TrEMBL record:
InterPro entries: AB_hydrolase_fold, FSH-like_dom
Entries under Pfam families matching the protein: FSH1 (PF03959)
Listed name of the protein: Serine hydrolase domain-containing protein
Source species: Sphenostylis stenocarpa
Chain ranges of the Serine hydrolase domain: 7-198
Amino acid sequence: MGSDGVRKPRFLCLHGFRTSGEILKTQLHKWPQSVLDHLDLVFADAPFPCQGKSDVEGIFDPPYYEWFQFNKEFTEYTNFDECLKYIEDCMIKHGPIDGLLGFSQGAILSAALPGLQEKGVALTKVPKVKFIIIVGGAKFRSPWVVEKAYSSPIRCPSLHFLGETDFLKKYGMELVESCDEPVVIHHPKGHTIPRLDDSSLKTMMDFIERIKKDV
């Protein structure tokens, strides 16, 4: 609950590839406490132990996890159904979950799940995802997932962070175009969770005020 007695929006937070919930929690501390105080954030570790070298080795301590595995072209996924079921189980365990917040691999999942849920192929046992916060996101490329996740516009309120030098920026912009009335924060950094300047802080707080009405 917030200090005003109103329930805060609860987000299930999905971390990046070969990192962890604890690492994402640390990364989000770049955001001011005034932002974090308005959100109820639940951090989960992905279901599969890291199957290779992590890019954050030497920066953040292990253990590291991954949500699913994929081929070089990012068109074929291994353990994808198991991943979706695991996220649903997390939403049941920590519910009620109002929205999803994701970074990198977690952002790609977070943005696809509302569409997959709408089509009845994921999250069938939990309430509708009401909003998403996407940092360094992109779209899946598998034709099957594309057809199910993005054939209709993503209608829930969405906030997207696009980094000027992020290697996924082009794909993040494609994702933004698949959303209905997305809110976008541009930042000068790369594939990272950015600090908030005055302008992006205002945009973020406006988004939070808007979604609080739907909790």
